[in-house]
Amino acid sequence: MKPCEEEEDEGGAAGGGDPWKECVEVAVQLALRAGQIIRKALKEEKQVSTKTSAADLVTETDHFVENLIISVLKEKFPSHRFIAEESTAAGSKCVLTDSPTWIIDPVDGTCNFVHRFPTVAVSIGFAVNKELEFGVIYHCTEERLYTGRRGQGAFCNDKRLHVSKETDISKALILTEIGPKRDPATLKLFLGNIERLLMAQAHGGTSGSYVLPSGCCGHQRDGYVHSSGNTNYSLQTG
What we know:
Layout: H1 5-8, H2 21-41, E1 48-50, E2 57-59, H3 60-76, E3 81-84, H4 85-89, E4 101-108, H5 110-114, E5 121-128, E6 131-139, E7 144-149, E8 153-156, E9 159-160, E10 173-177, H6 184-199, E11 203-206, H7 211-215, E12 223-226, H8 232-235
Parallel strand pairs: 3-4, 10-11, 10-12
Antiparallel strand pairs: 1-2, 4-5, 5-6, 6-7, 7-8, 8-9
């Protein structure tokens, strides 16, 4: 999408430069800032509520971080749209349009976060014309910053990532994720996928985070199987 005149002042660049450079830079700074908040809160007592199921958790930190990210982005890019996990859970429409849209999961791995298990991330994606332009994932405890841009590859702390060259699934490390849904159809799908992976003798496990295994394939992992359905704020970023 060629940025319009207004959008050139909101993260775009005139004269044929990188149209989303400022957006990427802001997303990186916000992910790092949010990661500091989550890292501190990981050690503290939490106010925990449930959403769609007893396994679908949310804390005050989820809300605080999401509000922080959205408020900063709205101030910088007032014409942009937002899809965010907690806002969607609270009733906001989850609609991806052609407009520049930020897709936010403030605490990916909330169940891990609640139990003080350190696999927790901030994820921020950015889509235009329903295509993801870039994604930023920050592993809060390991302080690994993953970035990826359409047509430009993916990086971890500025080091380029490469897709695994492993072609034998019986020698591959495959991660999956259970997700919060526990309805019979979802469980049947998930258990069927796990059975196929086990029958193929794949190496693997679960992570408790959607974006860390899917976004970081090629960095210590060979693949990721998404087994149970999730809304696009996690999948778009990863």
